[in-house]
Amino acid sequence: MAIGACPLTKVDKILVATDGSEAGKFAAQAAIELAKPCESTVYAICVAEVPVFAAEFVETLPQLIDSLEKRAKAALDEVKTLSEKNGVKCETISYTGPDPFKYIIDEAIKNRVDLIILGKKGVMLGAVGTKVIANAPCKVLVVPVGATLNFDRIVIATDGSVYSQLAASEAIGMAKRFSSELIIVSVAKKDENISYAEEAVKMVKEVAEREGVKVQSVIAKGEAFEQIVDTANKNAAGLIVMGTYGRTGIEKFFMGSIAEKVISTSARPILVVKKK
What we know:
The chain is an alpha/beta fold and 276 residues long. It has helices spanning 22-38, 61-85, 100-110, 127-135, 162-178, 194-210, 224-234, 258-265; strands at residues 13-17, 41-49, 90-97, 115-120, 139-144, 153-157, 181-188, 214-221, 239-244, 270-274. It has two domains: 13-144, Rossmann fold; 153-274, Rossmann fold.
C-alpha cells in the first residue's frame, strides 16, 4: 500500500535492520514505503553475526565468516535495488561480529536517525530486536510479517505517564494528517484503578479533539497488553502507538513489561515512542 503523506513530524533518516529473512524483507519494504513520502534517506544495516563460540572452530572460521558476509551483502543489495527502483536514497552498512544490536545502535547514534524499523515473524521479536528497542535513541517501528501499515485507525495506549503523553502527541499528529480515527485505550487492572484510566484517556481525548481528530475512547479492565491488542484487533487498527523509557541500558529494560508483551503478541505494526 502506498502511503500518500509522511506520517511522522520528522523522519529525515530511517535505519532499517535486515538479515535477508522474510522479517528483514518486510522491514525494508516498510522503510521504503515510509521514506518515499517523507523524502527520507534509508540506511540499511546488516550484521554478519559471528557467534562468540565460533572462535573455537579456528580452522573453519574463515569459511563461515565468508559465507555470512556474502549473505549479508546479498540482503543489502536487495534493499538497495528496491530503494532505487522506488526513487529512495539508500546507503548500506555492513559489519561482521557478535552482538548485532550494538552495531545497529551505534549506527543509529552516529547517523542521528529519526526512526529504526525492525521486522518480526510470529510472536517473537528476538533478542536482537528486543535489545535494539531497549537502547534505541529514537522511535522504533516494529512491522510483523504479513501486516499492512496504514493510518485509517490508530490505537494509542496510555497510562497517563509522560512517556504515554509523548506517544499520544505523535499519534494525534498522525491522525490529524491522515484524517484518521484515534482510538484511545487505557487499562485498569483492578476496579480501584478505573478512575485513573479514565483520567488518562480524558487527557489525550481533550488534546485530540482540539486538533479536530475523530476520537473513540476505550476504558478496559484486565491485563493491559491483552486489552490493548484486543482493542486494536476489534477496530482493525493499522497501527498501535505506545510510549516507553529512553535509553536506560539492558539491565533496566522493560523485559516483561506491557510494551514488550504488546510487541510480542500483536500482529499489527507498533510504533514505540521514546523519551530521550
